[in-house]
């Protein structure tokens, strides 16, 4: 009996030991799996750390580049502002120094219509012509300071070169000897008012001269009977008389077309930010990706000026295209309705594949860079 009991106990102990061994094996397998997972997690964590470090470095470089671009943009904007201030100063100085001679012949009905289309009424035309014909001396005489002109004519002329004409004039007046100064006493209110208005007069006069120049160009185009395609509006083609048809052996061009083909064409283009130098000699394929294969140009400076500073440089190139350009590229010109209502504004859309041929028509000796900002443009001085 004791032997059987001992055998049973031994059998039970063996079974328990086997169960414990099985459990230990399972736990060991679980531990190995956990260790493998831990090793994998550690590897993934290391990769994530490397990626995070790389992203951080890229972000740091991007931030540095952004700072650089912002600094360049600020510097470019400041150069534009300095250039604008200098042009405005010269315009005011010119307004003070010289009156602008103007054609006094009456305008024809056709000329008046052309001015109206450009937003210049007859009343405005007459006013800007009147303002342009006045210099500083005329202004002072007209505004009650004749005595000042009589006594200080040469001093007034000298003050024109001073950036602050009113201050210069008062310095001259206050330094007069009593014998001359006494003659001004009764006219001090008129003189004071006239001198106070000099700045406003010069600004209005400079603006009027700029406006008058545009008006006279419009009138001159009418008088010279410049074809529509060169005068700011797209010529309406008859069926079968488009530029492509006209260039074929079997087609003939309209009379106006032949005039257009035989003269130069002037176009304006504002390059993307930082691309001014790369387009000095024309359209640059390197500036156009596969998703952006077209270059856009305008027939008017107002068209190019709208892009200045808006993803584009603060200025635009003025390209002069040689005779024959329109015969080849005429179909690339499109009417361009615009919110600013610039009359006759058109857009030239040149495909990247045609850049070399386009550039071959540019008279590079006459290419100019015009500064511009917020829709305003400033041709080179002189």
UniProtKB/TrEMBL annotation:
It comes from the Bacteria. Residues 25-46, 94-113, 230-249 are annotated as: Disordered. Residues 30-46 have a biased composition (Low complexity). This is Uncharacterized protein. It comes from Streptomyces halstedii.
